[in-house]
Amino acid sequence: MAPERPRGVDAVKLAVEAPFVVSRDNNPSAPPRPGSGRLYAAVDLGTNACRMLIAQPRGSQFVVVDSFSKTVQLGAGLEASGRLSRASMGRTMQALRICQKKIEQHGVLRMRFVATEACRRARNAKDFMRQVRRETGLTVEIIPAEEEARLAVISCAPLVNVTTEQLLVVDIGGGSTELVWIDLSAVAPEDRPNSIMRLHRGFQAEPGGARVVDWISVPLGVATLKDQFQDVDDDAARFALMSWFFEENLASFSPYNSAQPRAGFQIIGTSGTVTTVAASFLGLRRYDRTKVDGLQMTSDQIDLVIREYLSLGPEGRRTDPRIGRDRHTLIMSGAAILQALMRIWPTDRLSVADRGLREGLLYAQMSVDGVLEDGPFQ
Fold first, then answer.
1. Given this model, what pLDDT does residue 246 score?
2. How far is 46 from 62, CA to CA, in rounded Å?
3. Is the pTM of this model over 0.85?
């Protein structure tokens, strides 16, 4: 049974207490100013999209100087064939060549390229990685699910409340969804965001530090969950089945059946689904990260947006400018995951994070190098 939730509570902008705030220059394609420090690059090659950030450390933050995102649908057809298709690899190669050119343009020397669920599952993924290296000179690592979860968690450190004792970070991807439950009750309140940053080394516990109670990588993301139920014609029935099926796949996650107090609990959601729902709630016809990142939405507000999506139907969602043409076919599978999560755990609020694997990669690289003012986090 879903927990009771108070009504009439408005979405609020979360006050970011931690010093790690990602900022962006007004001209993201402008080269960095001379003497402003080395540049770092991070690329997230996911099941649905290829995304890149180029950034430079600045104090306790980093500033994004260039970015790139392209829907490549690398995992298209993977569910049926177990292989990356020639067409999807071709689209991905084109996107990676753009990343390569941007890296050369900015003179980036410190970088990390990672691939996630689609490449973990595809039988021909290693052959494709060799092809990428041969044709672009770029090395793309296929990272394990635990590292993907860890990077998503540390990217969200700036959004952790100092009052949070139990934290759930959820990263809804294209091919998988990572959930990490963290106990912060033994950490001094003022150190809780920084204790999340220290998890870049791994999920092992340290005395007086953040303790990972459990984590899980569910092999269902917005693309793979949609593929599971594409034969269901009725829009509402398909949504209900997807939400139920995702919840069924959480049974082995230890906090699933544990009674948890509402006070001191925070859930942070990072994904295109979460930011799209937030942008829809705010009525943004043009996406604005500054209004979305750090927003707190109530469960009722999330339910309201999802009901609106259902009332629009497939055609209405396709033409809704708040959703966008790249996401309209995937938004309901993502919404089904989000609804299941909000139904299960004892909270009436979700912290929205417009950050994820790329930001985690950047923080991890900069932390190891000790170029952040309050780092390195060792």
1. 96
2. 23
3. no
